[in-house]
Amino acid sequence: MVHPFALARHDAAMFPSDPDVLVIGAGCAGIAAARELIARGRSCIVLEGGTRVGGRAYTESASLGAPFDHGASWLHQADQNALTPLARALGCEMLDHDTLRDRRLFADGRFATREERAAFAAAEDAFWQAIEAAARDGGPDRPAAEAAPHGGRWDATVAHWEGAQICAAELSRMSLHDFAATALDGPNMVLRNGVGALVARLAEGLPVRLQACVERLRWGAGGVAAEGGFGAVTARAAIVTASTGVLAAGAIAFDPPLPAQTQAAIHALPLGLLTKIAFRADHPDAPDLPPFAVLRRAVEHEGDRPMALLSRPYAHPYLVAFCGGARAWEMCGDTARAEAEARAEVAAIFGARAAVALGPATVTRWGEDPLFRGAYSHAVPGRMDARRVLATPLAEGRLCFAGEACHPRFAATVAGAWESGIAAARAVA
């Protein structure tokens, strides 16, 4: 018996009473899976526990008066990104952030000189040369931090930037081999109306049922049944796109339990956390940074964990502070602390007057949201294989997992989620 669901604007689509496939989650992977299933003539229903589509790609304009991506913000490696041609086909305005980015560095209480910025860039190059060489040396997997250069003037800042601030987890927590395998290149496209807005458009017309949180999934040779407060829905197969944070927390009970190797893979792919603290910045006393500027503060001492600042994308009047890794988890659930610490970062660079001039903060809350429980995945040391294991279909294709955590190359991105959703749709029984 299928009980009534809350429906989105997707209610124009037909909802099959006996679908071929259930897709759990209407994030990027779920949307891609549903589109691929329908293109292949398979019927499906997408069960989404939240009140919107998009998952960790979410754009809204109400809080800052302009499009703001709470989650995914760039189409990385755009020339090979499956979402790039889709965005172009929809007429989305986008620019390569790499060609616009005004990179600034603050160190020793002042803005770095041209020579210091060049030295920092050289340290970044040396970092990646060391990481890539270590990943190829034939040795066992180990924490990425063990392969990173140490002791140089900029080494701690580069490690903090590449780990906590980009990958949402410290290098000490991450598999060297997975870190190297999932490193991304440009172009990095930024969309005027947001990545989340693009993903939401790609979901239009799909059979998505909102506020349908799956609490139990029965699966086996006879098919699958998803159960929750909405009732129950049966199908021949299921594609589960819930985050590894949700899966590791046991938010979905699997009956029978998942195989031990699948469970181990889930726990070997924990979610890191990247929190954004965004402020309106249209007051004359607000920090004077040009559109698309990125400002990093150098690590000054052991235990220093600076935030980074992104200024006015597309000249939108806001400033975003990025806080990643352990520091973000420490602030999780305390938006007042996050705002205060971000203002303190601004004050340390531009002065107290500039920090006070910023408007009220909008703080992202991925870590505390029970539908996500973090930002994006990394593999723990020794478990580079976990992505492949999690993506392996079960019960002869009756149960498949998809999402950014399943992609061995584009992990932690919308591109990885999208491609994994397509792959699961092709593999499902």
Question: Helices and strands in order, then pairings?
Answer:
Layout: E1 6-7, E2 21-24, H1 28-39, E3 44-47, E4 59-60, E5 68-69, H2 83-89, E6 94-96, H3 97-100, E7 103-107, E8 110-111, H4 114-135, H5 155-167, H6 176-181, E9 189-191, H7 195-202, E10 208-210, E11 214-220, E12 223-228, E13 231-235, E14 237-240, H8 244-248, E15 253-255, H9 260-267, E16 274-280, E17 294-297, E18 308-311, E19 318-324, H10 326-331, H11 335-350, H12 352-357, E20 361-363, H13 386-391, E21 399-401, H14 414-427
Parallel strand pairs: 2-3, 2-14, 3-10, 7-17, 11-15, 14-21
Antiparallel strand pairs: 1-10, 4-5, 6-9, 7-8, 11-12, 12-13, 16-19, 16-20, 17-18, 18-19
Helix pairs in contact: 1-14
EC number: 1.13.12.3
Catalytic activity: L-tryptophan + O2 = indole-3-acetamide + CO2 + H2O
Enzyme class: oxidoreductase
Describe this protein's structure.
This protein is an alpha/beta fold and 429 residues long. The chain has two domains: 6-57 and 196-270 and 371-427, FAD/NAD(P)-binding domain, CATH 3.50.50.60; 97-188 and 274-363, Polyamine Oxidase, Chain A, domain 2 (Alpha-Beta Complex). Helices cover 31% and strands 19% of the residues. It has helices at 28-39, 83-89, 97-100, 114-135, 155-167, 176-181, 195-202, 244-248, 260-267, 326-331, 335-350, 352-357, 386-391, 414-427, and strands spanning 6-7, 21-24, 44-47, 59-60, 68-69, 94-96, 103-107, 110-111, 189-191, 208-210, 214-220, 223-228, 231-235, 237-240, 253-255, 274-280, 294-297, 308-311, 318-324, 361-363, 399-401. The strands form five sheets. Strands 8-7-17-18-19-16-20 form a seven-stranded mixed β-sheet. Helix 1 runs parallel beside helix 14 (414-427). The longest helix has 22 residues, at 114-135. The protein is globular, with a radius of gyration of 22 Å. The model is unreliable at 1-13 (pLDDT under 50). Belongs to the tryptophan 2-monooxygenase family. InterPro entries: Amino_oxidase, FAD/NAD-bd_sf, Flavin_monoamine_oxidase. It catalyses: L-tryptophan + O2 = indole-3-acetamide + CO2 + H2O.
